[in-house]
Structure formats: structure tokens, C-alpha cells
Design goal:
Strand order of the largest sheet: 3-4-5-7-6
Largest sheet: 5 strands, mixed, barrel
Protein name: Zn-ribbon domain-containing OB-fold protein
InterPro entries: ChsH2_C (IPR002878), NA-bd_OB-fold (IPR012340), Thioester_dehydratase-like (IPR052513)
Pfam families: OB_ChsH2_C (PF01796)
Number of strands: 7
Strand content: 35-45%
Order of helices and strands: HHEEEEEEE
Number of helices: 2
Length: 145
């Protein structure tokens, strides 16, 4: 099943510019919109730069290296679909290539702590039926150089 196939399953399709984010995501990079006029990144995707109001935006691929700004553990399932999948870690991260951006991601493996180096990826998760999930995992210091 391709991402195009999964974008419209069960009415869970992302809308607007988020659809473009999930189309461009995957592999070893994380796409973010960047303004061609002021050169600043922004998140969430939108049709205008929130900093200078320019409509001249391009998508740039970041390598996904990030640092944990805040972290928590989710212990309560909020939907039937997620029952039995708790506990899991969530992290708010800042990207090495775009430190002004903060993005929430679900932790895979050991729970990250504030200040930890992580690698962020965006992937389709067929097990959960999600059309796309932003994940992070702890990064070995060797991988950050």
C-alpha cells in the first residue's frame, strides 16, 4: 500500500498543506516549509509565511537531527484504537538545522529526556492504521557528528 493509497482511508486524510508534508516525508529526511523571502522555517505548514506574510514558500528537507526540548509519558489510551499501546513517550523537539522549530513526535524505544539527541522520522504505520506518524528515537552521539 502506498502513501497515496493511505491518505484517504477512513476519512483520516490530512488536509491542506499537511497533505503535502506527508507526501514529501519519509526516508531519512523531514520536510519543512521555508520562506524564500525571509529564509525562516515555520511549522505548521500554511500558505503564507507567518513571519513576513510572503507566499513564496518552498519545502526543504532536514536531516531529522534534533534535541528534546520537553518530554512526557502518555499512560492513558484516548481512543479504542490506542488501547493497549500505552505507555509511550512523547517529545517536543527542536531541529539542529532549524532551531526555531518545535515539533511533537512519538518516541520509539527508550523514553527520551530533556536535552537528549534524537533522530526524527515521518513514516506510515500500517499496524495502527495511521496515515503518517512523526517518530523520534535516541541518537548515538557518534551519529550526530
Amino acid at each position: 500500500m502506498t502513501l497515496d493509497d493511505t491518505l484517504h482511508i477512513d476519512g483520516n486524510a490530512p488536509v491542506g498543506d499537511l497533505e503535502e508534508f506527508f507526501r514529501l516525508a519519509g526516508g531519512d529526511s523531514v520536510p519543512l516549509p521555508q520562506c524564500q523571502d525571509c529564509a525562516r522555517f515555520h511549522w505548521y505548514p500554511m500558505g503564507r509565511c507567518p513571519h513576513c506574510q510572503s507566499e513564496r514558500l518552498v519545502w526543504r528537507q532536514l536531516d531529522g537531527r534534533a534535541t528534546v526540548y520537553a518530554a512526557t509519558t502518555v499512560r492513558h489510551a484516548f481512543t479504542e484504537r490506542t488501547r493497549g499501546q500505552t505507555p509511550y513517550g512523547l517529545a517536543l523537539v527542536t531541529f539542529d538545522e532549524a532551531p526555531e522549530i518545535r515539533m511533537v513526535c512519538r518516541a520509539i524505544g527508550p523514553a527520551p529526556a530533556i536535552g537528549d539527541a534524537v533522530t526524527v522520522r515521518v513514516e506510515h504505520d500500517p499496524a495502527s492504521g495511521d496515515i503518517g506518524m512523526i517518530w523520534c528515537r535516541l541518537t548515538d552521539e557518534e551519529d550526530r557528528s
